[in-house]
């Protein structure tokens, strides 16, 4: 086997509660990930030399080690596969700076794919240990599951087995704004230090993750609205006031169960069917022609 083509799916955070700032500047958190069918393609080819070469159809993305796919391949090669090279071709569909983890997902696909192509025989745990050095969201995609609860910096991932057949439909609204994750976490620190802010907008007790998981187990879904939460939303809107419009446009269109994903800029709703998602999508496109609208489901 010389080449391999992999789907590299996006994620949504149905719940994200930031807890504390750690001594290395990162934050401990609790999050519920969902893998969705908005998807890039990652094409891997073994090279005769030991180079890692990246080709990407989006000229705006770096093709060097700033690209998480390249960073992952270099780490894997240095640790386990001395002398092996690969060409990585990225066909991008997942929007950038939207909180949908396109770069992290590409990195995970590279780790999974090169483990096979280079015949390294590494376990999930070994791949996760490299994944967590690439970025906080990478380990989730190594598990190849629908839903997971993650803790630590986001890298301690536990797939939720009871939800392995659960399927949600979404409409996702992506504004023309790249949100900077490090700046949003810094803004969260500032808000956290402000005595006047309502703390429940920034963080939730540990029981919050249990509540959303039990709401997801129930088919009816009328509980969900109160359980969806993103502690970075207040910081994101403080930093980019235009983001408040994204939630407003979804509300105006009548979309239920609205939440921001990751550090934004995308917001999504949970709807009852593909048909309903398409109906909302048409409405949202009329309300704002510049922003991107995706209809997606759990995968
Ligand atoms: O790990 P990743 O590269 O996705 O993180 C991007 C940035 O987001 C980090 O440099 C850090 O500023 C912030 N971050 C954080 N705590 C986390 C995850 C990310 O502070 N748990």
Based on the model shown, name its key terms:
single chain, 299 residues, alpha+beta, Ribosomal Protein S5, domain 2, Alpha-Beta Plaits, 2 domains, seven-stranded mixed beta sheet, four-stranded antiparallel beta sheet, 10 helices, 11 strands, binds cytidine-5'-monophosphate
Can you lay out the helices and strands and say which pair or pack?
Layout: E1 3-21, E2 27-47, E3 52-56, H1 68-80, E4 85-91, H2 102-117, H3 124-134, H4 138-142, E5 147-151, E6 156-159, E7 169-174, H5 181-193, H6 207-217, H7 224-227, E8 229-230, H8 233-239, H9 244-252, E9 258-260, E10 267-271, H10 274-287, E11 292-297
Parallel strand pairs: 1-8, 3-4
Antiparallel strand pairs: 1-2, 2-4, 2-5, 5-6, 7-10, 7-11, 9-10
Helix pairs in contact: 1-2, 1-3, 2-3, 5-8
The structure holds cytidine-5'-monophosphate.
Residues 26-27, 29, 135-137, 153-154, 181-182, 185 line the site of cytidine-5'-monophosphate.
């Amino acid at each position: 086997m010389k080449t391999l083509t992999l789907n590299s799916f996006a994620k949504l955070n149905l719940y994200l509660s930031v807890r504390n700032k750690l001594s290395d500047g990162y934050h401990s958190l609790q999050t519920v990930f969902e893998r969705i069918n908005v998807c890039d393609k990652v094409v891997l080819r073994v090279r005769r030399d030991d180079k890692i070469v990246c080709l990407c159809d989006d000229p705006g993305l770096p093709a060097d080690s700033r690209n998480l796919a390249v960073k992952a391949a270099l780490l894997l090669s240095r640790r386990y596969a001395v002398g092996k090279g690969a060409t990585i071709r990225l066909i991008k569909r997942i929007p950038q700076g939207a909180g949908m983890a396109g770069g992290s997902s590409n990195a995970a696909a590279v780790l999974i794919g090169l483990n096979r192509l280079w015949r390294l025989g590494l376990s999930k745990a070994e791949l996760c240990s490299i994944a967590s050095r690439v970025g906080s969201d990478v380990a989730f995609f190594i598990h190849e599951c629908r839903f997971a609860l993650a803790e630590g910096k986001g890298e301690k991932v536990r797939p939720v087995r009871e939800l392995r057949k659960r399927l949600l439909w979404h409409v996702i609204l992506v504004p023309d704004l790249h949100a900077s994750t490090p700046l949003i976490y810094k803004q969260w620190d500032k808000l956290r230090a402000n005595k006047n802010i309502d703390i429940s907008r920034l963080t939730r007790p540990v029981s919050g993750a249990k509540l959303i998981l039990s709401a997801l187990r129930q088919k009816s879904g009328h509980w969900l609205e109160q359980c969806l939460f993103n502690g970075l939303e207040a910081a994101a809107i403080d930093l980019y006031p235009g983001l408040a419009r994204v939630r407003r446009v979804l509300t105006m269109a009548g979309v239920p169960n609205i939440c921001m994903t990751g550090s934004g800029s995308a917001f999504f709703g949970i709807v009852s069917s593909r048909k309903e998602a398409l109906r909302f999508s048409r409405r949202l496109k009329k309300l704002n022609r510049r922003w991107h609208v995706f209809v997606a489901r759990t995968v």
